[in-house]
C-alpha cells in the first residue's frame, strides 16, 4: 500500500515531560522536529505527578548529589546501572534550575529559594536520615512542568502532531531506525514520518493491571512498537506499586502526604511502619511500604469490613497545612473514598503505579541491543530503562528521569543528526506493509473477540498472577494464561469501521501494545526466581546469603525479554559509576 | 459478545478528548458517558468539546467541587459529571 510520507530531522513519539524536554534540545539546535501525541501535550500523564522533582540543591539543609546517588542505588536494590544513576543525580540541579528558567513556578522558601520537602527513600549522608530534596509546585508539579516545557517548545517551533497514534517503528535491513508509521485519529489516514533520529517517549503501560493509578492513555505504545520491531524489553518484571492508591478506585494519594506527616495505621490504629522500617518509618521506600501494607492485610490487620486496606491518617495535621500544602488530596479523598481526611483517615491499598523496566538505553538515551547502539533510535522517560530505577524507583526520581534523560537523549540526537552517518534512507516497503496489515486485519476481522472483554481479561490475569506478592505456581499458570489472552488479542473485532475518530479502532491498537508489555512482564517475572525491589516472590528464601530473598550471586543482572519466541536473556548490571567508587552491595534496610 | 453502538463522529471525538492525563477524570468521564452520552444533543456535545480544552488540573478542580466552574454554559455539564 502506498502511504504519504513526511520528512523530519527528528521525530519524537510522546509529548509528556521526556518527549517535550528532548524536543526543546532538538528544536533549539535548529533541527526540524516533529512530536506525535495521542492527546494534547499538556494532557499527557506527566500531569499526574504531584509530589515533585528531586535535586540536591541543598536549599533547606545540606545535601549532595552523591547522597542522592546512594539513595537511588539503594532504592533500586542495586539493580540500577551506577553510571546512569551518577549521571542523573549529578545533572539534577542543572535540569531543575533550567526548568526554573523556563518559567516553572516552584514553591519558594521565605528567602526566595526553591522550597524542598522530604520524600520517601531520600536521605542525607548516605542513608542517615530523611532530607528535604523534592522541589515542587504545590501539588501540581507535573502540570506546571508540562506547561513550562510546552511553552518553550512553541517558542522553539517544534511541530506538534496532536491526536496522532504511532503504529510501528520503521527499520532498515541493517537495523537502523528510519522513523515511524502513524495514524491520524481524525481521519484514520496513515502516514510515514521519516527521520534521521527517532525518540520514543511514550510513557508507561500501567494499564496492563486491573488496579492502576495510570490514566487510560498509558498503554505502552512505545514498548509494543519496539517489541514488534525486534527490540528486547528490559527488566519488565519490575513494577512499582504505589503504597497509597485509594481503595477501590486506584486514584493516587501522593507520597507528599507522608512527607508532610501522614501516618499509616492498621486496624488497631498501630503505626505499623515502625516495625518494618524503624528509621524511615512511613517515609521508607515505596516497595518496602507496599509490602508492609500487604503483610498487615494478609495477616488479618487490615481495616474495613473486609479487612482489605489500611488507613492513611492526617487528622493530626493542621487543616491549614493540608489545605495549603496538600489541597488536591482532600478532594480526591472525598470523591473516591467518601472521607474528609481532615476528620477521618483515608482507606488505601498498594496500586500499580510505575514501570521500572522498558526499552534498554544507556545514559545518553541511545537504545542498546546486544551491547551496541541501534543507530537512529532513542528512548527516554518511563518507556525507557537507562537503568536508573532498577528494581524500585524512588519518588520524585521519575520527573527527574524525564528531565535528565529527555535532555541527554535530545543532545545525543543533535550530535547524531549533525554528525556523519545520519542520512535519510529509503524505507523498505515491507516495514510499511506490516503496520498497514495490522490495521487492515482489524477492519476485516469477523467473529472475533471484544476489545473491552479481552483487555479486562488481560488486566485481571496480570493482577491475580503478577501483583505485589508473587508465587511460583501462580506465575507459571499466569504465563500460560497470558499467552492464551494473546491469541484473543490477535483476533479482536471492531464493529465500528468508521474513519473519523474511531475510538474502538484506537483501543484495539492500544491493546496490541498492552499485550506485549503484559507478556514481557509475566514471563520475566516467572523467570526471575529471587526477590528484589518491587519483584517479591514468596518462594525466594531469606538467608544470610540471600537477605530478603535477594540473590546477588545469581540474579544481579538485567532481564531482556525478546518477543520472538518469548526468549529471555540477561545482561550485567553496570556497577561502575562514572567518577566515584562503586556503591557496594549490601542488604537494603531503612 | 457485546456489540458496540455505531456512534456519531462528534460523539467519538468527545469520547477521545475525554481521555485525560488524570485517572480521576478518566473515571468520571467514563461513568458520565455510560449514563448520559446518548442523551446529549449535538449542541451539548459541541459545548462539551469546548470545555474539554480546559487543563486537567482546572477541570478536576471543577469536577471535584474544589472550585466553581466560572463558565455559565459549562455548569450543567460539570453538574452532570459530578452526579455520575
Could you name the key traits of this structure?
heterodimer; A: about 600 residues; alpha/beta; 4-stranded antiparallel β-sheet; globular; B: about 80 residues; mainly alpha; DNA polymerase, domain 1; 5 helices
What is the CA-atom radius of gyration of chain A, in angstroms?
A: 23 Å
Low-pLDDT residue intervals, each spanning 5 or more residues of chain A? none
Count of DSSP-assigned helices of chain B: 5
Care to count the β-strands of chain A? 24
Q: Which chain pair shows the most residues in contact?
A: A-B, 48 and 29 residues
What gross morphology of chain A would you assign? Answer: globular
| Low-confidence blocks of residues of chain B | none
Number of strands of chain B: 0
* CATH architecture tag of chain B: Orthogonal Bundle
User: Can you identify the CATH class of chain B?
Assistant: Mainly Alpha
What is the topology?
The complex is a heterodimer of chains A (590) and B (84).
Chain A lengths: L3 E10 L3 H12 L4 E5 L15 E2 L10 H11 L6 H20 L14 E9 L4 E7 L5 H15 L3 E4 L1 E8 L5 E8 L5 E11 L20 H8 L4 E2 L4 E8 L9 H4 L3 E3 L7 H4 L9 H13 L11 E4 L5 H7 L1 H11 L8 E10 L3 E2 L5 E4 L2 E8 L4 E2 L11 H22 L10 H16 L4 E2 H15 L3 E2 L1 H18 L2 E2 L9 H25 L8 E2 L14 H4 L1 E6 L4 E6 L18
Parallel strand pairs in A: 1-2, 1-9, 2-6, 9-17, 15-18, 19-21, 20-22
Antiparallel strand pairs in A: 3-5, 4-5, 7-8, 8-9, 10-23, 11-14, 12-13, 13-14, 16-17, 23-24
Helix pairs in contact in A: 1-4, 1-11, 2-3, 3-11, 5-15, 9-10, 13-14, 13-15, 14-15
Chain B lengths: L8 H9 L5 H14 L5 H10 L4 H8 L11 H9 L1
Structure description:
The complex is a heterodimer of chains A (590) and B (84). By secondary structure, chain A is α/β, with parallel strands linked by helices. Chain A is built from 16 helices and 24 strands. Chain B is mostly helical. Chain B contains five helices and no strands. Chain B is globular. Chain B starts with 8 loop residues before the first helix and ends with a helix. Chain A binds chain B through residues 38-40, 42-48, 140, 143, 147, 163, 185-186, 212-217, 249-252, 327-328, 330-332, 334-336, 449-450, 452-453, 494-496, 498, 500-504, 506, and chain B through 1-4, 6-7, 9, 12-13, 15-17, 19-24, 26-27, 53, 55-57, 60-61, 64-66.
Amino acid at each position: 500500500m502506498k502511504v504519504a510520507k513526511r520528512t523530519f530531522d527528528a521525530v519524537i513519539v510522546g509529548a509528556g515531560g521526556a518527549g517535550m524536554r528532548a524536543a526543546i534540545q532538538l528544536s533549539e539546535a535548529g533541527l526540524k522536529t516533529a512530536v506525535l501525541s495521542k492527546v494534547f501535550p499538556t494532557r499527557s500523564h506527566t500531569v499526574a505527578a504531584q509530589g515533585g522533582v528531586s535535586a540536591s540543591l541543598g536549599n533547606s539543609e545540606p545535601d549532595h548529589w552523591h547522597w542522592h546517588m546512594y539513595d537511588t542505588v539503594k532504592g533500586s536494590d542495586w539493580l540500577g546501572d551506577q553510571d546512569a544513576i551518577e549521571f542523573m543525580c549529578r545533572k539534577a540541579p542543572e535540569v531543575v534550575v533550567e526548568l526554573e528558567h523556563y518559567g516553572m513556578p516552584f514553591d519558594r522558601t521565605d528567602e526566595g529559594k526553591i522550597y524542598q520537602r522530604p520524600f520517601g527513600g531520600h536521605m542525607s549522608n548516605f542513608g542517615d536520615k530523611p532530607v528535604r530534596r523534592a522541589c515542587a509546585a504545590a501539588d501540581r508539579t507535573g502540570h506546571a512542568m508540562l506547561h513550562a516545557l510546552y511553552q518553550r517548545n512553541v517558542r522553539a517551533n517544534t511541530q506538534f502532531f496532536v491526536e496522532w497514534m504511532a503504529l510501528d517503528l520503521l527499520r532498515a535491513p541493517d537495523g537502523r531506525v528510519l522513523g515511524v508509521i502513524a495514524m491520524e485519529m481524525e481521519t484514520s489516514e496513515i502516514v510515514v514520518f521519516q527521520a534521521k533520529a527517532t525518540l520514543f517517549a511514550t510513557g508507561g503501560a500501567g494499564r496492563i493491571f486491573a488496579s492502576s493509578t495510570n490514566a487510560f492513555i498509558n498503554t505502552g505504545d512505545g514498548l509494543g512498537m519496539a517489541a514488534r520491531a525486534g527490540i528486547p524489553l528490559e527488566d519488565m518484571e519490575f513494577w512499582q506499586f504505589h503504597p497509597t492508591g485509594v481503595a477501590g478506585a486506584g486514584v493516587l494519594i501522593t507520597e507528599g502526604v507522608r512527607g508532610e506527616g501522614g501516618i499509616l495505621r492498621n486496624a488497631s490504629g498501630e503505626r505499623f511502619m515502625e516495625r518494618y522500617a524503624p528509621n524511615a518509618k512511613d517515609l521508607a521506600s515505596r516497595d518496602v511500604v507496599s509490602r508492609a501494607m500487604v503483610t498487615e492485610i494478609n495477616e488479618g490487620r487490615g481495616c474495613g469490613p473486609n479487612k482489605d486496606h489500611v488507613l492513611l491518617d492526617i487528622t493530626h495535621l493542621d487543616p491549614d497545612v493540608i489545605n495549603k500544602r496538600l489541597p488536591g488530596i482532600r478532594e480526591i479523598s472525598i470523591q473516591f473514598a467518601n472521607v474528609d481526611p481532615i476528620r477521618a483517615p483515608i482507606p488505601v491499598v498498594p496500586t500499580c503505579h510505575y514501570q521500572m523496566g522498558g526499552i534498554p538505553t544507556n545514559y545518553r538515551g541511545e537504545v542498546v541491543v546486544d551491547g551496541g547502539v541501534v543507530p537512529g533510535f532513542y528512548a527516554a522517560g518511563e518507556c525507557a530503562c537507562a537503568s536508573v530505577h532498577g528494581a524500585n524507583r524512588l519518588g520524585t526520581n521519575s520527573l527527574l528521569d524525564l528531565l535528565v534523560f529527555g535532555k541527554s537523549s535530545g543532545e545525543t540526537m543533535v550530535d547524531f543528526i549533525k554528525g556523519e552517518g545520519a542520512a535519510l534512507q529509503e524505507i523498505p516497503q515491507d516495514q510499511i506493509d506490516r503496520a498497514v496489515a495490522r490495521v487492515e486485519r482489524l477492519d476485516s476481522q469477523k467473529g472475533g473477540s471484544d476489545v473491552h472483554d479481552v483487555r479486562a481479561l488481560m488486566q485481571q490475569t496480570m493482577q491475580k498472577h503478577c501483583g505485589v506478592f508473587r508465587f511460583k505456581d501462580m506465575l507459571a499458570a499466569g504465563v500460560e494464561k497470558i499467552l492464551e489472552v494473546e491469541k484473543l488479542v490477535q483476533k479482536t473485532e471492531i464493529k465500528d469501521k468508521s474513519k473519523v475518530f474511531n475510538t474502538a479502532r484506537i483501543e484495539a491498537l492500544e491493546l496490541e501494545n498492552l499485550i506485549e508489555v503484559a507478556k514481557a512482564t509475566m514471563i520475566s517475572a516467572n523467570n526471575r526466581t529471587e526477590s528484589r525491589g518491587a519483584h517479591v516472590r514468596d518462594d525466594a528464601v531469606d538467608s544470610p546469603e540471600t537477605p530478603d530473598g535477594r540473590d546477588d550471586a545469581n540474579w544481579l543482572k538485567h532481564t531482556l525479554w525478546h518477543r520472538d519466541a518469548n526468549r529471555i536473556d540477561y545482561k550485567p548490571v553496570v556497577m561502575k559509576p562514572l567518577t566515584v567508587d562503586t556503591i557496594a552491595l549490601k542488604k537494603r534496610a531503612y | 459478545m457485546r456489540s458496540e453502538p455505531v456512534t456519531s463522529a462528534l460523539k467519538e471525538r468527545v469520547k477521545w478528548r475525554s481521555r485525560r492525563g488524570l485517572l480521576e477524570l478518566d473515571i468520571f468521564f467514563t461513568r458520565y458517558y455510560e449514563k448520559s452520552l446518548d442523551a446529549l444533543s449535538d449542541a451539548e456535545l459541541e459545548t462539551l468539546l469546548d470545555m474539554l480544552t480546559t487543563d486537567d488540573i482546572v477541570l478536576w478542580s471543577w469536577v471535584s467541587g474544589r472550585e466553581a466552574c466560572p463558565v455559565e454554559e459549562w455548569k450543567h455539564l460539570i453538574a452532570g459529571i459530578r452526579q455520575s
